[in-house]
Every structure is written in structure tokens, then in C-alpha cells.
Amino acid sequence: MMTKKMKTLTFEQLPQSGFAGLIERHFVINQALFGRSKTIAFPGLGNFVYLADANFLPHGETHMHGHKEVDVISVMVEGEIDHHGSLGHGENLPAGSVQVQRAGAEGFRHNEVNPNNQQNQMIQLWVLPDELGEQAGYKVYQPKLGQLTQVYGGNKSQKNTFNSQISIAVSNTVVEQNITLSDEVLVYLSKGDAEINGEKINARSLVHCQQGVNFTALTQGQAIFIYQTTNRVRHYHESNRIWRKFEP
């Protein structure tokens, strides 16, 4: 679906792929990085180059593998993941949590494992670093219900998130929660229904808003916002009638 200022890509439009113990669909593929193909996936935004929506099979795993010079953000939607690897070994990631791994020059190795008898759901995003040679690092976030939590991006003077010109914020949404951003934004609605710029959007949809986004949650769910770090966010929830502004 496409309008002059907004494009939408849905789960049903994309082919299923996968590897090891998971199945997935690719919503963002930067073809300059991954090679040319006939994919209809969006190219991303700046150094944001990849987004996949994955279901791990019961007791499925990625198997141990490595990365260098990329930041890997994993957002849990349903179920849980047991994390194994050279960074943050032994961490358990329940639904709603976020894991961020910075590979840097030294790199990291990891294996993500579904410990349960049911499929789970996890979103993985890749962002290339602003500068090569960063130190490897690991962070975990537990966004609170009804709040917007920045999990990635910002300048080097702060330590809450890994620095980047791309920012990523996650909200485990509640009904009527409103989030507004200016300028170019990608929104991945991983769970629930929402209204984005006046249009109803269903779960497992990626929306590219070229001139800002006005997001209102219609159900409890989860949304991921990707934008330039200089962007400003306004976050409002009817239950507390408080506006929050932040500059990453």
C-alpha cells in the first residue's frame, strides 16, 4: 500500500524464508550491502540496513555464529529467548524485552535459543556503526508498558544507549497511547493494531512515513520506531495526560 507520504509493507506480501531453527520474513534489505535482488523489502534509512520478523520453531536456535562491525538489535514480541555467546552469555529475554549487541572491530559470537515447546516471535534489526573500530558491547532493556523507551542511538556523551545517527525506540503499547515524530520515520508494528497518520495498520506491518508520523495504539501491542537521531519525539498517553519530549 502506498500514498504520497506513506508506504506500507505487510507480512502477507513477503515470501517466507529462514535458516537453522527459525522462519522469517525480511522487511528491510539494503541491496547495496546484501546484493541486488527482486525483493520488495524497503531499503532502510541511513545506516539502518536490515529488519526481519522471525518465529523460532519449538526449541529452535540460530546456532553459534559471528558478526563484526554491525550493531544487532533484537526485540522480543512473544515467548522468550535464551541468549548464549561471547557477550551477555546466559541472559534470558522475555516478551517485551530488547537486546542490543555491538560487534565493533573485535566482533561477537552468539546463539539465540527458544527454550519452549511453542513458537516465539522476535524482530531483529541491523545498523551499521557510524565509525569502524568501536569496542564490542552488550545492553538489555525492559520497556515498561505504555512508555516509549529509546534502546539505540544518540551521541557519544551519553551512556544509556550505543551511539549512532540512527535511533531506535520501542513501546509495549496500551490503548490510546499516542506517539508523534517529525521528519522521516519507519514504524514496525510487531503486535496489535494502530492508527498511523489516520490509517488503520495491522500487526506485522512496516510503515515508511516520509514527513512524520502520528501513531495511536488501538489495542495493546508493540511498536518499533526507527528515525534519525536529531528527530524529536512527543509521547502522550490519555491515562496520565503528560506530554514527554526528548532529544536522543
Key attributes of the depicted protein:
single chain; 248 residues; mainly beta; Jelly Rolls; seven-stranded antiparallel sheet; six-stranded antiparallel sheet; 1 helix; 2% helix; globular
Describe this structure as you would to a colleague.
With 248 residues, the protein is mostly beta strands. The chain has one helix at 31-34; strands at 6-10, 17-19, 22-29, 48-56, 65-67, 71-78, 80-85, 92-94, 98-102, 108-113, 121-127, 137-141, 148-154, 164-171, 178-181, 185-191, 194-196, 199-201, 205-209, 213-217, 222-228, 233-237, 242-246. The chain has one domain (6-246): Jelly Rolls. The protein contains one helix and 23 strands. It has a seven-stranded antiparallel beta sheet. A six-stranded antiparallel beta sheet has the order 1-19-16-21-14-13, with no helix packed on it. It has a six-stranded antiparallel beta sheet with strand order 18-17-20-15-22-23, with no helix packed on it. A hairpin with a 6-residue loop joins β7 and β8 (92-94). The longest helix has 4 residues, at 31-34. It is globular.
C-alpha Rg (nearest Å): 17 Å
Count of helix runs:
1
Strand count = 23
Summarize the helix and strand pattern as letters.
EEEHEEEEEEEEEEEEEEEEEEEE
Identify the strand order in the major beta sheet.
2-3-4-11-6-9-12
By CATH, the superfamily comes out as: Jelly Rolls
Q: What is the CATH third-level topology name?
A: Jelly Rolls
Q: Which range best describes the helical content: under 10%, 10-25%, 25-40%, 40-55%, 55-70% or over 70%?
A: under 10%
Give the rounded overall mean pLDDT: 92
> How far apart lie the N and C ends?
31 Å
Q: Which structural class best describes the helix and strand composition? A: mainly beta
